[in-house]
Amino acid sequence: MHTGDGSHYHSRDYRYVLRLSGEELAVVRKYRDELVACTAGFAEVFYNYLFDNPGIAEVLYAYEEEGGDVGQFARAELANLLASIAGEIGGQREDELLSAGRRYLQRNFRPVWLIGAYNLLIDYMHTMLSGMEIHPADRIALDTLLTRLLLREMGITLEGYWMQARDNERRELEHIAGRLGRVEDMLAGVPHLMWSVDIDANSLVYANYTLHLLYGEGMISPLPCIGDTHEEDRQLLLTAWQDAVSGKRTRADVRIVLAGDRERWYRVSLYPETGQSGRPATVHCMLEDVQNLISEREQLQSLATTDRLTGLPNRSLWSDHLTMALAASRRVPGSQVVVISLDINQFKMYNDTLGRDVGDTVLCDVASRLRSTVRESDSLARLGGDRFGILLHPVNNAREAAERIITEIMDKFDLPFAYRDKQLCVSLTLGIACFPDDGSNEEALLANAESAMQRAKRNSLPYQYFDPVNDVSPAEQLRYSGQIRSALDNNEFELLYQPQISLDTARITGAEALLRWKHPVEGIVMPERIIPVAEQLGLITPITNWVLVTALKQCRQWSFQGAAIPVSVNVSARSFQNPRLLERIHWALQEAAVEGDRLVIEITEATLMQDIDRATELLSSLSEAGVTIAIDDFGTGYSSLSYLKRLPIDTLKIDQSFVTDVAFDRQDIAIVRSIIDLGHNLGCKVVAEGVENSMTMDALDRLGCDTAQGFHISKPLLDDHFSTLLGQTDRQS
Length: 733
Ligand code: C2E
Ligand code: MG
Ligand code: MG
Known about the structure:
The protein has four domains: 11-170, Globin-like (Orthogonal Bundle); 193-298, Beta-Lactamase (2-Layer Sandwich); 308-469, Alpha-Beta Plaits; 476-732, TIM Barrel (Alpha-Beta Barrel). It has 29 helices and 21 strands. The strands form four sheets. An eight-stranded mixed barrel has the order 13-14-16-17-18-19-20-21, surrounded by four helices. Helix 28 (694-703) links the parallel strand 20 and strand 21 (707-709). Helix 8 (111-131) runs antiparallel to helix 9 (136-189), helix 18 crosses helix 19 and helix 20 packs parallel to helix 22.
């Protein structure tokens, strides 16, 4: 054996199959010199063979391009071929042949080319022998022997070729095994579970170490973890598997209990691999622990949608609920949604005077009281600051549902809250808007609920339903904000005067000044749209000042006309709270040069009750100046009788809502009668507002009302029309 590298070449096998013995080879050696001399012409045959065969030529050129010396190569190979004829079969020769074979493979020679070369040499040799002088007894033996010898040489060269191929393959395999080993080591260290499934056979063709550790032999294919998967998630996992089998990469997050640990979230990723048939043949599966990821995600989500202090949903989540509620309601005809905006009264005071932590506790307590009033299907949220929101849905009767919850909330807030050693009475103001009547989308509904709430606050009422006339939308506020400022400068405001007549004498006893805005684009804008915006924008004071002076100057005109009647001016809550109001009134009286008794200040019950101490002081001063005080819209607020008795009030104006049907509605009759009685008992004059027909007027007269104001007598009039009317009634009388 001369292979030197442990391959399977055996010299003796060749001797055996080719029947070559030492004595026989002696015949070849006998003619060796002659043979060698004759082969000189073979070189040309060989070179032609090399370069005429395109496959060989191509390999040789490539060798040349890599820097090899083709000439030297060809010479060496020729020498090697011709050496065959020398009849050497010793170990050295065999080694040479084997390494030639190896070389051929390394140089990308194909075995068939080698056979071709030997074939040429055999042919050449036959021709050569026929021309040589050989002893007749030797000729056949020499011919046969040379052929066998060449076959042997070729065979050993091919063995070398084959050995090299096997070595290459072995090295390749070792290399692959090394890499596989490293991959395997790596996979063993991976905490994920990994496995591959042969789809057709439904068997696991690979399972990583961790999976083996968990499930051992006999794992269930294709999803070993299916039995440990949460019941609710199993279908999800099976659907993912079906998707993978049909060629889709999928993943599913499912809850699994692994090895008796507690339930955790795992992500199962499935990667199908297409087989030779073009269909998915294998699915590679991976299961990784995503509990932390999901916990973090949930935490983030909850941070983004929950108010941290109260644990209630925040505005953004609440908006989503509202969107969903509206969508659901649109699908069911007749179904409604109630949107309630709630605000804590005087919250700023708790925060400022008792400290932020008390403020926070108030917020939490309010949240928990509110929580106990809403049903599961309703949704409660903290919208920010001391603002809360409630959604009731779906409801068939929005008013009824709202009333129910309002009552419950009022009851819940009747009891005081205890803070340290203090008892705090916390109350809320609510604004209500209903879908679909009060808005068609989330923004409009919420804005309208807030507007209604703002109005309730202004009037010190516990709650108000949205009213398109009285509630100014934020968009409108924005639209008017710049314009109101310039309206005063541009003389766009004007006053109308509505007469009040004595039911006894039918004479005009006074007039109420009512504000109008001659808007350059929108036409006449009513006070109910101006006043709230002006209040909110802090522009009410200049308006009130203008109204006071203008109305009083007009009053002075009337007195020149011979009608010594007072003018009533409405003062809004914000204006009433202004500490300079008294000063402004004195200034206006002076400016118009009229006495205080020509002025009636109308304030609502709510305004009056908002700050009773201030009201008492201001009204006393006004009274001293001879100014008359009228309580407007009487009956709609919550006046305390004891205050009414103490305050210098001259007039009660019964709200229109009681007056309209007083001719026939027994309840309204009873109310109006008691207001008139109350007013008279307090020493006040009683005015009925909104008298629209003679029946009402008669009814009021019968009930003993003093004065009437309303469309039946006259609509609010421009100043000159009012003066004309004054003249007419004077002439009539
Ligand atoms: P108010 O003081 O209660 O004024 C009476 C309202 O009833 C006026 O509406 C008047 O036009 C209306 N009215 C009078 N008679 C009838 C009637 O027979 N039927 C009906 N349906 N309505 C009648 P207007 O002018 O729209 O004013 C609305 C409110 O705006 C006033 O209610 C008052 O609170 C406020 N306001 C008006 N002018 C001013 C002002 O200069 N300053 C302030 N702060 N508020 C004002
Ligand atoms: Mg009024
Ligand atoms: Mg009124």
